[in-house]
């Protein structure tokens, strides 16, 4: 059984060149397609379920890192995640994060000798994976853990505008935050508010000891969690104190709930 | 002035004054053998130091000219005159106390003419010393201004260069070039020509201040050609420069930051890509250049970092040259295609 790959790259020339380069280095690797942007990368990966994924970091719609995170959460249970190689032209911040998380990455322009090393690593990884182990989740966790630099300012009050009033919501009253398109929903025991920001911008301003990310789009106040229940397929769901909503926990964050 | 009121400044001045006073005392002993050096020294020091203190500290009580640290207008003369007169009287009293002599009463027995002569004599010395301090203070201040301006100019130039030669853009372009070399050598050569022209204009922009609008359009075309090779189908461009405006003089790299913003924050994040158009037109005695993209729009781009520096630079350079007569506005495009419109308006200058 030959390995399959997917290339996500918004610049057509670079995508074609990486594909040609791979054909020379690893003829047995079947490239299932080229995704021209972040959302397409997620959709195509879920459709083709490749063994290997080359993700450009800077793409329209979603960054490569965001696409990887989304895939980890949407990936069907029981099938191993693809091995991920990030591709970047120059991005000091990303490179540091990659080093910390021990994920493989190649720099553009992709050099033959460097790509050969990546191919060797991928082949080893795939051989190991056939035995059932997968490091991809751990790597992504580390990558995402290192990807949220703590901001110097901690939010204590969030200003949520509604019509011509501005509600001053105490952060301590928020039970959970949920990403909703371009907004973030703030859910408190009494009501909910919408604020015009992204969860990604909000996260660094929260105390991560008290507010846990449990899903790509959900951050919950830890002391508002009543129970975490695991169903037969292994999926975790949280019930809350002071609210009837149930929150799903994604695979990336299920390690937070181990029991004592 | 930066260190105008620092203790070091006053100590340095006091030291200088003491040296000058000693010199005056020595001159007086030579010219008037009736006095001992010690008594002349004491009088000279007390008169000199009081005069200096009145003037140097007095400056801070009066509205000063920021260029020299000295009072403005007539006060510039009045302060030293006041300092010299009062310094003479107070200094003589202190001298009397210290030496046990009685110069003040001796002065009373002198004729008015001798009194005036005495005042003129010390006034001239005081005036010369005050002028010396004023001149050195001013020179020092301007030297500082020049150094600061130079440093700021160098920093701005460096930042401009950094913003122009963004490593991500450069490496991505090189990666494309590398891919083209084997796939399509002719296009690779074409791309390299655009890259060379783009780099040359970026590096020389810091040296020339103005150039014709046609040259600015050529440089913009170079940059857009590079971006077109990179973005492929996702980028459409149209440049429109009426023939009669080709010779209009504009600041170098005026459009570059605007076009770069339109691509980086408008079109690159837009999944479908879009079109960028650059149009120049005449509006009475003004030249108007519109840079319009059909990208994600201002709202989405506002959160992106790095837009501000380029725009700030454009505004700064426009106002340096034209003051309030030139403007740069950034607004949401009003038609159905959406996106952002950056519009530069400046006085039409034809050579």
From TrEMBL, chain A:
Pfam families linked to this entry: LytTR, Response_reg
Record has Nucleotide-binding as a keyword: no
Keyword annotations of the record: DNA-binding
Top-level taxon of the source organism: Bacteria
SUPFAM superfamilies documented for this protein: CheY-like (SSF52172)
Keyword Iron-sulfur: no
InterPro entries tied to this protein: CheY-like_superfamily, LytR-like, LytTR_DNA-bd_dom, Sig_transdc_resp-reg_receiver
Protein name per UniProt: DNA-binding response regulator
TrEMBL record, chain B:
Gene Ontology, cellular component aspect: membrane
EC primary class: transferase
EC number assigned by the record: 2.7.13.3
Coiled-coil positions: none
Catalytic activity reported: ATP + protein L-histidine = ADP + protein N-phospho-L-histidine
Gene Ontology molecular function terms on file: phosphorelay sensor kinase activity
InterPro entries the record matches: Bact_2-comp_sensor_kinase (IPR050640), HATPase_C_sf (IPR036890), HATPase_dom (IPR003594), His_kinase_dom (IPR005467), Sig_transdc_His_kin-like_C (IPR004358), Sig_transdc_His_kin_internal (IPR010559)
The protein, known as: histidine kinase
Protein's organism: Piscinibacter gummiphilus
